[in-house]
């Protein structure tokens, strides 16, 4: 079962926009040392929208190489074209990934039966486990619980990343899914409650910055230690908030840069560095948390 603290890894870049593979290696080692259970490479936080296919594959391949078998790597393979998503999955499976994260098609607003056919085609072509990713705040289209129930019958579809932040949705999903289907939060502010109410883990942006705390939070929450889980979550609640005061991954990259884990906070256009007020706000918190 896919569970625990899974980082939605940022992709470091140099001032000219090239991928900074030296910093990528440092980030992978950082997560291995701090108890992260798995890495999602080139998802939304990894700027998948602005990496061409060749570069997308290269970043995933190098992440697998740097992981040295010590931590599973899950590739972001989503697209709003089914044929493109299948092709991307085919390319990724040859580099040693442990699974694929496939987002609900964005912008074209497919019907539920269209999404079922889309993910079925991806899973039919897959040789590794597929994680569905529902994030209507970005995609507009919302994968219904009923559609998840249908898709969960496919042997290659093993998990859902739910980024709705709606804990009522979790109860719907639990009622219609088998115990071996992984339910993962994709919303850091509600991730603790998600796990305390039966979720199996998180695919986390905050884990980029405090991987050890996120690992400890997941262990406490999934083992039913509510007091400890809530104590840890309270200690990073403001970090959850400040990492999203500008669109992800703007603030996580700024934090990693200030922490010395990236050479620069560069983002691919149309994303740009945070404004001065946002920079100062996050830096103040990082200082309070003794991270810089």
From TrEMBL:
Domain of life of the organism encoding this protein: Bacteria
Classification via InterPro entries: Aldolase_TIM (IPR013785), DapA (IPR005263), DapA-like (IPR002220), Schiff_base-form_aldolases_AS (IPR020625), Schiff_base-form_aldolases_CS (IPR020624)
Active site residues of this protein: 133, 161
Residues given in the record as pyruvate binding sites: 45, 203
Site (Part of a proton relay during catalysis): 44, 107
PANTHER family reported in the protein's UniProt record: 4-HYDROXY-2-OXOGLUTARATE ALDOLASE, MITOCHONDRIAL (PTHR12128:SF66), DIHYDRODIPICOLINATE SYNTHASE (PTHR12128)
Family in the record: Belongs to the DapA family.
Cited function: Catalyzes the condensation of (S)-aspartate-beta-semialdehyde [(S)-ASA] and pyruvate to 4-hydroxy-tetrahydrodipicolinate (HTPA).
Name of the molecule in the record: 4-hydroxy-tetrahydrodipicolinate synthase
């Amino acid at each position: 079962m896919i569970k625990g603290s899974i980082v939605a890894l940022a992709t470091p870049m140099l001032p000219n926009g090239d991928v900074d593979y030296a910093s990528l290696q440092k980030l992978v080692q950082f997560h291995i040392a701090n108890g992260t259970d798995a890495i999602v490479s080139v998802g939304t936080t990894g700027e998948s929208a602005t990496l061409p296919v060749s570069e997308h594959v290269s970043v995933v391949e190098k992440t697998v190489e740097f992981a040295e078998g010590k931590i599973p790597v899950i590739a972001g393979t989503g697209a709003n074209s089914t044929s493109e998503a299948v092709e991307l999955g085919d390319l990724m499976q040859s580099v040693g990934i442990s699974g694929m994260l496939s987002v609900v098609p964005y912008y074209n607003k497919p019907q539920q039966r269209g999404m079922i056919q889309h993910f079925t085609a991806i899973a039919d072509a897959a040789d590794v486990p597929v994680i569905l990713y529902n994030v209507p705040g970005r995609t507009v289209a919302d994968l219904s619980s009923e559609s998840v129930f249908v898709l969960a019958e496919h042997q290659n579809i093993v998990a859902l990343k739910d980024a709705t932040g709606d804990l009522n949705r979790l109860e719907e999903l639990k009622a219609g899914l088998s115990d071996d289907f992984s339910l993962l939060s994709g919303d850091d502010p509600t991730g603790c409650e998600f796990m305390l109410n039966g979720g199996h883990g998180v695919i986390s942006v905050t884990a980029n910055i405090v991987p050890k705390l996120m690992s400890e939070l997941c262990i406490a929450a999934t083992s039913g230690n509510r007091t400890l889980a809530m104590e840890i979550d309270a200690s990073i609640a403001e970090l959850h908030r400040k990492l999203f005061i500008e669109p992800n991954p703007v603030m996580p990259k700024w934090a990693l840069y200030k922490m010395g884990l990236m050479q620069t906070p560069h983002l691919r256009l149309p994303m740009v560095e945070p404004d001065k007020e946002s920079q100062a706000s996050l830096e103040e918190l990082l200082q309070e948390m003794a991270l810089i």
